Fold:
Amino acid sequence: MATKITGTNTAAAPGVTGDDADTGLFYGTNEIGFSTGGTSRATVDSSGNLNIPNDSGKIRLGTGNDLEIYHDGTDSYIKNNAGALILRDDVIKLKAFSTTDTYLEATNGGGVSLRWDNSTKFETTSAGCTLTGALTLTGGLGMAASKYIHGTSGIDFYGDSGDAGSKLVTLVDGGFKIKDNNKINFGTGDDLQIHHSGTHSYITNTTGSLLIDGATNGSIYLRPDNGQSGIDLIQEGAVNIYHDNVKKFETYASGTLTTGNLKNTGSVYVGNQVDGDDGNSTGQLFFGAGNDLKIYHDGSHSYIKETGTGRLKIQADNIEISHSGDGQHWLYGWENGATALYYDNSKKLETTSSGTKVTGQQLIYQGASGGTANSGAGLTLEDNNSHYLQFLSPNNKEVGILFGDDADNDVGYITYSHTNNNLNFGTAAAERLRIDSSGKVGIGTTSPASYYANNLVVKAAANEGGITIVADATTHNNYIMFADGTSGLDRYRGLIGYQHTTNILELGADGSSVGNFKVKGDGNCEISNGDLIFAAGHGISFVNAADTASGETVSSSVLDEYEEGTWTPVLAGTTNHTLFNVSGYGTYTRVGRHVHCQVAVHNVDLNDSAGGQVMIKGLPFTEYKLSGAIRCLSCNFMTNNVGLPHSGDMNRYSWYINDSNYLVGNRSDDASGWVAWNVSNFISSSVYLDITFSYIVAS
Structure:
């Protein structure tokens, strides 16, 4: 199925558009195009040509528009601004547009040629390159004055002017021709120069050494005159030095040979020296410009002395230093092997492929300590000052001391891990103690910092594990002290102690040198100073195995409260007690949930307007009620100047605690039940009332 677009269809009004009516796809006869802003930007014609009909449009390729092809109205461009512009073909030619002339031609596996008016002037070959015609340089060939090259019978290098007078060098079949005082320079800084001054010839080196190398199978000869010998350097042979064509000095396989006299500006001092610098009559061999190496005998001893710069090197496949008489060994050195040192012809130190081996005791000495090393010590460090045994390693490695036997080479160890800065101690191939990076000590655990009180953590690995403090006599005491200072009571602000004489375990606090709480050998506990205080809801349990067997629980047998105190009883009537009341004095004793109270209201005058049932409010604790009001467990009272209404001799009086936690009075006689005891009986000018009562508290 085909889609056909009809109607207006131009660059200004394309047939296929989006929201922008003048931007889209248009077509014409054998042509299709794209427009933006009503202007044709690109078309494809019937020949397959892609046309950009303006001088500002470009073909852009690459994420960053790195390759551009365009015409600016005057010239055409192919521009690349990232990486290289690569043209690939087996044959590449740059040719003229209006003629068939070729500018450049490059052939795969062949050469590259440059042409002038279609005539080759420069081309590369398998052997190098070929230049046809003259080469004119505007920048020289590495020589500042060289500007032109021209050749008739050879190649001439001229100066800036290019005239005959400025000719510098001519290359001919026979070599170079260079004018006097003109130099051939080698090196970045013209370090090697060759020239003729018009009188003499020079080879001048200004940096490093001047090396003259001969051919592999050849020799080097320096001749002062044609046919006259000076110095011969014979390949794999002698060095000969001549005087007036007569050999005077030569080397050979076993040394040197001098013909004639040997004269020196310095001295070779062997035997009786004539002009030595030591002021003695012994002969010396001197080596070096500053007599750095000396070999001599001073009449008593022989010396090989290096006194200047550098080192004294003794080189051989194997080296032995031994006694000249009995052959006792002092030092041996073997090629690709050990070096050994001896004492009294007995080997004491030798190198191995993995380090060194010491036979006998080893002493690292930096000064006399005044002490004597143990005869069993394999390694002793001695100094007359502070000194240390140090291990150095990268900060992510471990160092330590290993203790081994014939079954295990590290059955015991002391190691330090630089990764986490732990110091570890191990026995029987297992870690036993660790000091971590913050100084926390763990015995039996590798993570002491995981615990709350973690300066010293001991983890018992088995039943009955722990810490033991052993007294060296049964008359001594042992302590665990808690200090916050270094003097006086601060040294033992808290303590746990054991008196071995009396078998008493004691606890002390706040600097007491004697424990305030003691557990005696007979099982009794004693508090010598202070009280036994329980948190709310806790106390002393009297339950035992027999009690639990009968169903009694620990919670039901706990004595969890004891308290003594005072309270203020307030005498009033229930009707208007907030307006009219008088206060007395009260005490209480609480044991568990049982409270015993005493009330004393003495010589008071309650206002005559007080009304309702007599009451005493201000009880120290809230009573426990099963339902409604609960009468006191017991109650006794005494009164003075209190009216006691009665009918006959059988009047009774009682007190109980009502729902409002007030102590209220009741009375009863033979003729009726209990009724309220009215407060009007307590309004005399001088009332005395004493009451003792007990009740159960809610909690």
